Amino acid sequence: MVMGPCGGVRSDGGCEVHRYPCVFPAPVPWGDPVPPVPLDAVPLILTDFSSEPYSASAHATVAGILAPVSDAVLVGEHQDRPDFPPAQLASMLQQAGARPWMTLSCRDRNRVVLEQELRGLRQLGVDAVLCVTGDARAYDVRPDVTQVFDLDGPRLAALAASIGMPAAVPETPAAPPRQLRPFRLAQKQRAGAAVGVLNHDTVASVAGFMAAAAGAGVSMPVLAAVAIFTDPASASALSGLPGLNLDPAEVRAVLDDPDPVAAGIAAAARQARALLAIPGVAGVNISGLASARGYEFGARIKAELAARIREEAAAWRRLPHDP
């Protein structure tokens, strides 16, 4: 990794993989700017796509639930759940009516294979690729296979832009060094990123981050994460990783509610409303599994939330505003 620090720095400044201090005390600046490939359209609602790995039928079912209410779906590459190759999976989701944003991780592919995937995704007309360095593989998944990390996220974004693919990049406002995260997002923009996607944080923290990012020169659209959870397992999945920040009081209120599904959707809708009011936030990423009761059930929760956000956003935009 050259363009550190990644988003996995623990609160004590240690690496998420080993309990050693992060070797990047400050973000590495990018050199000559790479012209970004602009998005055809910035999504108001980008919804996490979660499904049973290696199941074409399950993928089609989940895509069919999310596609009607989402401008695009964000397809992750998980450290503990290998799945079909990105270009193949993108084609499946397109056939099911979804507009996929595919995540490409540097963990398992060298530069040549990453370029192959990028060119395949571009040929398919995929809207964007989320360029991530990638979490280290879970200890019990393919322990006999070497991890690659030939590139890191910013250099992958530059590669994507160089071949005509719109590049999305993540940023984690809550990860140390917090005060330098806006600068890091600006460096990813210089590397060719066309859009930023933030990890979870409180509304107040995101507002401060966005103001600082604008001051650092970030002008590309940014999507803020809306956390959706309705049970202890789905809440834990969003708060158990470094850099992900949920309000403990809000988590407790949802989980203690007699109807945690309705409470979770309502809390996430309130968060989306507040995030969309922040200058520079162009849309939201509905993020999380939503439920431990299966991928299809979780997709229906996310679809209901997406529909509510869209309806509220449309109503808000129709209201008269102060000049």
Structure explained in plain terms:
39% of the residues lie in helices and 13% in strands. The chain is an alpha/beta fold. It has an eight-stranded parallel barrel with strand order 1-2-3-4-5-6-7-8, surrounded by seven helices. Strand 2, helix 2 and strand 3 (100-105) form a beta-alpha-beta unit. Helix 8 (248-256) runs antiparallel to helix 9 (260-276) and helix 9 packs across helix 10. The N and C termini lie far apart (46 Å). The model has no long low-confidence stretch (mean pLDDT 92).
Question: Percent of residues in helical segments?
Answer: 25-40%
H/I helix tally? 10
Q: Could you describe the largest sheet, including whether it forms a barrel?
A: 8 strands, parallel, barrel
Distance between the termini: 46 Å
The total count of strands amounts to 8
Give the oligomer, counting copies of the same chain as homo and different chains as hetero: single chain
Share in β-strands: 5-15%
Q: State the shape.
A: globular
Order of helices and strands: EHEHEHEHEHEHEHHHEH
Report the mean per-residue pLDDT as an integer. 92
Radius of gyration: 19 Å
- The chain-level structural class is alpha/beta
Low-confidence stretches are none
Strand order of the largest sheet: 1-2-3-4-5-6-7-8
